[in-house]
Automatic annotation (TrEMBL):
Keywords: Acetylation, Acyltransferase, Transferase. This is Glycine N-acyltransferase-like protein. One of its GO terms (cellular component) is mitochondrion. Its EC number is 2.3.1.-. Residues 3-145 form the Glycine N-acyltransferase N-terminal domain. GO terms for molecular function: glycine N-acyltransferase activity. Residues 147-235 form the Glycine N-acyltransferase C-terminal domain. It comes from the Eukaryota. The gene is LOC102738630.
Length: 236
C-alpha cells in the first residue's frame, strides 16, 4: 500500500491496521522512522481500545491532532463458532444466524454495484461526502464483492460494500425506501456469500445507531468482546 499513499491529505488510503501483544513495544515500533508517515492525514484502525494511550502519546510526540471513534463489532455466529468457539459456549449464544427479512423480489432485484454507483454511496456514507472518499469507494467497488438491490427504476436503492480489511461497510438505503427491511436482507446476503468463501467477515456500528443494533440482534449476529476503533490523525 505504501506506493499508493501519495496524497498527504487522503486518510482513506493512508490507513494502518494495528494489532499488538505488547503495547510498549508497539509504541516504539510505530514511532520508528519509516513505519507510519505522521506528516500525512491518516487513520489507524484496531480492535484494541487499549492502544488509545499509545496513539495519544505518539500523536503528542509527533505534533499530531488525533480523534478517536469507537464502535460495536458484530460477526456471524457461524464465523464466530470457527474463530471464537469459547465465546459462544460461555455466553450460550446461538450457533446459527436468524432468518433474513422477506422482501418483494418482483420490485427489488439483487445485483452487484458498478463503479458508476460510487457517487450515490458517497452521498450517504457517514465518513464520505468528498472527492477522496468517492475515489476510495470506487476502488472498493472495483476490487471487492458488493451487493445492491435495484429498485423499479433499475438503479440501487440499497447497497452493501466491503473494504480492504474484509469489513462490511458503507451500507445504505435511499430515504424513501427505508423501514422495509432492505438493508437487513442485503447485509445478510452479503455476509453469508462471503462466509461461503471463508472470509472472516465482520462489521461495526456506533452505539447511537440503534437501528443497526436491532437488525444485528434480530439476525443473531454475535457482539464481539472487542471494540472497533479508529484514530483520525492530522498534523498540526
Amino acid at each position: 500500500m505504501d506506493e499508493e499513499m501519495t496524497d498527504d491529505f487522503d486518510h482513506y488510503t493512508n490507513t494502518y491496521q494495528v494489532y499488538t501483544k505488547n503495547p510498549q513495544n508497539c509504541q516504539e515500533f510505530l514511532g520508528a522512522s519509516g513505519i507510519i508517515n505522521w506528516k500525512q492525514h491518516l487513520q489507524i484502525q484496531s480492535s484494541q481500545s487499549s492502544l488509545n494511550e499509545v496513539i495519544q502519546n505518539l500523536a503528542a510526540a509527533k505534533l499530531v491532532k488525533v480523534k478517536q471513534k469507537q464502535g460495536i463489532m458484530y460477526m456471524l455466529p457461524e464465523t464466530a463458532s470457527k474463530l471464537l468457539p469459547s465465546l459462544l459456549e460461555a455466553k450460550n449464544l446461538p450457533l446459527k444466524s436468524g432468518r433474513r427479512k422477506i422482501i418483494n423480489q418482483e420490485m427489488f432485484k439483487l445485483s452487484s454495484m458498478d463503479v458508476t454507483h460510487a457517487a450515490l454511496v458517497n452521498k450517504f456514507w457517514h465518513f464520505g461526502g468528498n472527492d477522496r472518499s468517492q475515489r476510495f469507494i470506487e476502488r472498493c467497488i472495483q476490487n471487492f464483492p458488493t451487493f445492491c438491490l435495484l429498485g423499479p427504476q433499475g438503479t440501487p436503492v440499497s447497497w452493501s460494500l466491503m473494504d480492504q480489511t474484509d469489513e462490511i461497510r458503507m451500507g445504505g438505503t435511499l430515504p424513501e425506501y427505508r423501514n422495509k427491511g432492505l438493508i437487513s436482507y442485503l447485509m445478510d446476503v452479503h455476509i453469508h456469500a462471503l462466509d461461503k468463501l471463508d472470509y472472516p467477515t465482520y462489521y461495526h456500528t456506533f452505539v447511537t445507531n440503534k437501528i443497526i443494533q436491532k437488525m444485528s440482534h434480530s439476525l443473531n449476529h454475535i457482539t464481539l468482546p472487542c471494540d472497533w476503533n479508529q484514530w483520525h490523525c492530522v498534523p498540526l
